[in-house]
């Protein structure tokens, strides 16, 4: 296998737009920190806004325009999805209204505003509070008549990855991958990708183990293992949260592992400083588990998805 493997899978959301056509077909790179190309990184950080969320924004919004002729989109996001929605809405000519926790990275706010979105910064309050960023998005969608993308509940979130990301991963590494490792937020990325990979592996007559990566103080893994809930607390943006979300297809996951904030940050810094890969902290969490699996099993070839770039975290991850 070459150290860099391109993808040549046709996008299921074909476009003539020169910017939107840059979404997807991201390369897979052998991680320099593990010998013999046993950890392979799917570089979703190379999408236009530096995140795999460009895929769901592209898929969901192009379908919504086609099916419902929408002119306004509203979404609640801690950052990456918001930036992706802002870009895609800009190119589709849609009004874009975004609600985000005020604690989100300032670089992420920059993406949203650069593409002309209306941004509402919301206080850090409990999810049942009327000023919570998700509640605010729902209210604004009702007031404006806008299309609420609703990434935490929209089945098109994992569906896009099953149609698009999964086929790319399998085309690049299906002949040798033994594990798929991915960080979890909404669960859409790991769920959709895992479904396609599992289906193709079954046809090939061999298993692929899918490992979800959760924050230490989060409730995705607790739901998966039927454990008592934990108070949610992590500094890694977009990682974890809780429960059995509709976009989390547990049936395609084999196990979950937890990562502390310090472990996630340390791995992301190590990837940048020692190996020249600028990745975000949730990607650092997934890469940490991928490396652990590879080191424990020399016969394993682990694919991990680098869900976003580190250039959105200069004020939180790389300072000092």
Structural class: alpha/beta
Number of helices: 10
User: What is the CA–CA distance across the termini?
Assistant: 37 Å
Large-scale geometry: globular
Number of strands: 11
Q: What is the average per-residue confidence, as pLDDT, rounded to a whole number?
A: 93
- What percent strand? 15-25%
Question: Rg, please?
Answer: 18 Å
**Helix proportion of residues, in percent?**
25-40%
- Detail the poorly predicted runs: none
Biggest sheet descriptor: 7 strands, mixed
Query: What is the element string, with H for helices and E for strands?
Result: EEEHEHEHEHEHHEHEHEHHE
Strand adjacency order, main sheet? 1-2-3-11-8-9-10
Search tags:
38% helix; seven-stranded mixed sheet; four-stranded parallel sheet; 320 residues; 11 strands; alpha/beta; globular; 10 helices
């Amino acid at each position: 296998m070459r150290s860099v493997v391109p993808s040549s899978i046709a996008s299921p959301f074909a476009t003539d737009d020169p910017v939107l056509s840059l979404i997807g077909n991201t390369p897979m790179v052998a991680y320099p920190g593990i010998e013999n190309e046993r950890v392979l990184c799917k570089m979703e950080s190379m999408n236009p806004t530096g995140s795999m969320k460009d895929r769901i924004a592209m898929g969901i919004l192009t379908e919504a325009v086609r099916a419902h002729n929408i002119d306004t989109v509203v979404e609640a996001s801690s950052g990456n999805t918001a930036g992706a929605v802002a870009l895609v809405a800009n190119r589709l000519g849609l009004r874009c209204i975004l609600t985000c926790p005020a604690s989100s990275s300032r670089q992420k706010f920059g993406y949203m505003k650069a593409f002309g979105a209306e941004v509402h910064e919301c206080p850090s309050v409990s999810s049942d509070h009327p000023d919570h960023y998700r509640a605010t998005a729902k209210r604004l969608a009702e007031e404006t008549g806008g299309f609420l993308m609703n990434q935490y509940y929209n089945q098109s979130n994992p569906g896009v990855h099953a149609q698009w990301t999964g086929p790319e991963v399998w085309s690049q590494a299906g002949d040798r991958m033994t594990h798929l490792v991915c960080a979890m937020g909404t669960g859409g990325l790991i769920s959709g990708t895992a479904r396609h990979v599992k289906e193709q592996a079954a046809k090939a007559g061999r298993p692929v183990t899918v490992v979800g990566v959760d924050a230490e103080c989060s409730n995705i893994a607790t739901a998966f293992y039927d454990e008592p809930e934990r108070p949610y607390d992590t500094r890694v943006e977009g990682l974890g949260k809780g429960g059995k979300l509709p976009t989390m297809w547990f049936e395609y996951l084999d196990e979950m592992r937890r990562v502390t904030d310090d472990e996630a940050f340390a791995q992301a810094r190590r990837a940048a400083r020692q190996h020249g890969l600028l990745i975000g902290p949730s990607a650092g969490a997934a890469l940490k588990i991928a490396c652990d699996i590879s080191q424990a099993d020399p016969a394993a070839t682990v694919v991990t998805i680098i869900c976003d770039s580190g250039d959105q975290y200069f004020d939180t991850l790389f300072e000092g």
